[in-house]
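Notebook, p. 212. Picked up where the previous page left off. The plan for this session was modest: take the two constructs that came back from the sequencing core last week, fold each one, and keep the raw output in the notebook itself so nobody has to go hunting through shared drives later. Recording the first one now, exactly as returned: residue sequence, then the structure token string.
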Amino acid sequence: MSAEDRGRDEYVDTCRGVACVLLVAYHAIGASVGSGLHLAGDSFWRNFADGLIYFRMPMFAFLSGVVYARRPFAAGDGTHFLLGKIRRLLLPMLVVGTAFVFVRSNIPGVNVPAMNWATLLILPVAHYWFSESLFIIFIVVMILESLNLLGDLRKFLIVLAFAAIMQLTVSPPPEFSLIGANYLFPFFLFGLGCSRFRIAKIDFLPIYIAVLVGTSSYAIAGILGYVAPTDRVSIIALLLGVSACFSLLLSGWKNRTLAFIGFYSYAIYLFHVFFTASTRMFLYSMNLKNITALVIVATVAGVVGPILVEMIADRFALTRTLLLGRAGLAGVKTRWRRMHVRRASPGMITSASPAVCRKEANLEL
């Protein structure tokens, strides 16, 4: 079944697929010299991973803003909105994050010093900070929506400018992923603006690409040591991330494979590290030392494995809630609708049409 058949936006899912592959490849390589494949700073794959910092999480935040604008917070719906975000974002973060800490602390070959599991909500481990940062962003957006500060373009641009200034000048504490929320908020707002106000114009696509090429070239030069390294919180990184998001979204590029991957983006985000690490350990035991092969195989495993996890977990109310953050019983109805989408005639608006299925889907990530 194609992404369109499931009621999804295939353009957005293609972008999500790109972001997923980049995220998984980053952790397959290793976030630093001391993790993953332990690659030296002068290797191609090490430089490649370092360059991904400007694209990975900004793209996820941007796409979250794009999708949020299609199903925004409504006045008087605060309790339902917050409970939905807690279930969708914080519950899987705690459940899967705890499992990750347990595995990383007890399995030979990946073990690290013991961590205090009770502080996972205060100081999320690894990449799970993104879930809590996005939750905080949704709280802020709910407040801004209630104050009608995102309702027209002028007010929105003021908020966007303020968020960009805050990102570039303020460094919040790491507790509760406040620093991550501050970093991602401008990208989320740019995505929201694309959906709500069409701030990204197709006529300006050559300009976005030119900015992307220029900022990327400077960032690459920094990685290679020709100029000072570009920090991920900088005007160069902000322009690079936004221009990359605009260019990819406006390109109109659709790819069924990437869209399929993007459909499972949340599960891939949550579970990919289990599969990249275990695959790497298995390949080491088989005495495979080719770095390129290790990266490719671990990346494929980090994409395919979580998809299988979601397919299994989605069948049961308890696992779909704890592991995927979805409403237990609602999933049965949603799957039934998706199964019948293909029976509707093109253009026919039925209870199983993409227009209705889109309302049923939970699309934060």
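Okay, moving on. Second construct, recorded in the same format:
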Amino acid sequence: MDGLLALSRAIDRLTDWLGRWVAWLVVAAILVSAGNAVIRKLFDSSSNAWLELQWWMFGAVFLLAAPWTLRVNEHIRIDIVSSRFTPRTRTLVDIVGHALFLVPLTLVVIVTSWPFFVRSFALNEQSANAGGLPSWPAKFLIPLAFALLLAQGLSELVKRIAALRGIGDPPPAPPHHPAIDMHAAPPTAEKR
């Protein structure tokens, strides 16, 4: 189990590094968008390549930051329910969810998207828009992102199984978001 935990920590470090790096693509996409808008307004000129680059960057953020979101326990779940579970029950629910849903889904997407990318790459597929970018790099992001999500999902499985065996730390509780807490007392008006 120690070897698997060491591999899990390595995956976590890669995921953290990639997630922090990819987050900067939001800033880059904003700059590209603003630059394209300024050039369009000042010089009455625009480029489909710049618009597509902006789309690529936003797509890369959503796809490549998904493993980081899973790593920091911010993925979608029913927090109102899971926050009420004991740490052991949360761990069991995560194990079942990762093993039965996350891992198989990522494998299906990897297997089905790889030929989609390979075909695009072999044809050097280009954008249908005049002056657009090649399509294959964007299509490569799909299998890449889901392979990284699979690796992080397996890392989470290892950590949760270790926690159940008393080897590792229990997974963190879901983040507390008071705005969605159904049990929070509603604001009351002051009585005078």
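Notes on construct two before I forget. The mean pLDDT is 84.
Flagging for discussion at group meeting.
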